[in-house]
Amino acid sequence: MPANPHVAxxxxxxxxxxxxxxxxxxxQCAPADIVLETQAGIDAFQSVHGPxxxxxxxxxxxxxxxxxxxxxxxxxxxxAAVGGELLISETFDxxxxxxxxxxxxxxxxxxxxHNFGLLDIDALAALTTVxxxxxxxxxxxxxxxxxxxxxxxxxxxxxxxxxxAISNVDALSSLQEVGSHLLIxxxxxxxxxxGLSSVTRVGGSLxxxxxxxxxxxxxxxxxxxxxxxxxINRNAILADVHGLSxxxxxxxxxxxxxxxxxxxxxxxxxxxxxxxxxAPGPGQLPIPDLGGEARFHGNGPGCxxxxxxxxxxxxxxxxxxxxxxxxxxxxxxxxxxxxLALRRMQ
Length: 346
Description:
The chain is an alpha/beta fold and 346 residues long. The protein has six helices and 20 strands. The protein folds into two domains: 26-151, Alpha-Beta Horseshoe (24 nucleotide stem-loop, u2 snrnp hairpin iv. U2 a', Chain A), CATH 3.80.20.20; 175-316, 24 nucleotide stem-loop, u2 snrnp hairpin iv. U2 a', Chain A, CATH 3.80.20. It has an eleven-stranded parallel β-sheet with strand order 1-3-5-7-9-11-13-15-17-19-20. The protein has a nine-stranded parallel β-sheet with strand order 2-4-6-8-10-12-14-16-18, with no helix packed on it.
């Protein structure tokens, strides 16, 4: 029976789509969740779990409390996607992530932490999305984040924390949105966050804490929306917050405390003035763009109250009612004593 030309045409179209769609050829690793705690496990990855390009569940690389002997991820070459969580942790001898050059997406959380010999993450250059949380935490020798140049978004929080050697996050210039919290915490040699210049929205809290070498927040010039609170605390040489001048929505408290060099908070005026940029914003007059309280303390002169920030005179301190009554009673008592004295003199 002659082939139906319509069916033949449809099959041709499907075939062309399959050939053009690399995801259609993804070979799934088995089992869904994989734990690789040794170098031997890494080296045998494709022969034991593949050949494959996609881990559908979680992939854990590393041991427990620095016990792993892993020094190379070359055995993971060809891996393009992790559907669940990717953990790379607790290594001493892993100097790079070479072997992950094909990795484009992680569906769940991705955490790279406690890798005490890790110098670079350049192999992550193809990574564009992380569906959950992303953290670089306690990798003390990591020199930069250059491997994250194509990362555009995280579904959960993003944490750059406890990285003692990095001086900038320039490679994050493609990052536009953080689904939950953005944490820049305890990076003692971080001098610039200009790499965050494309971030317009943080779904959770913004926390910039204990960055002793950070002089300014210019990298946040595009940030307009913080879903929860914003905390700028204990940054030793932070001198101004001009980088927050585009911020028009903070859903909870704003806390700016213990930044001893911070003497210019004019960048916060648009957020704290009486103009409702959100129409409606998260708060009420007189600060409609702020959903909670504004707390200022322990900063340089000019940044220790909302009145200083806005250039307003603080309201007069009301005299408590009990103080007024106390003063009145003292006057009456004095009058009574004077009255008794006059009677005795007569």
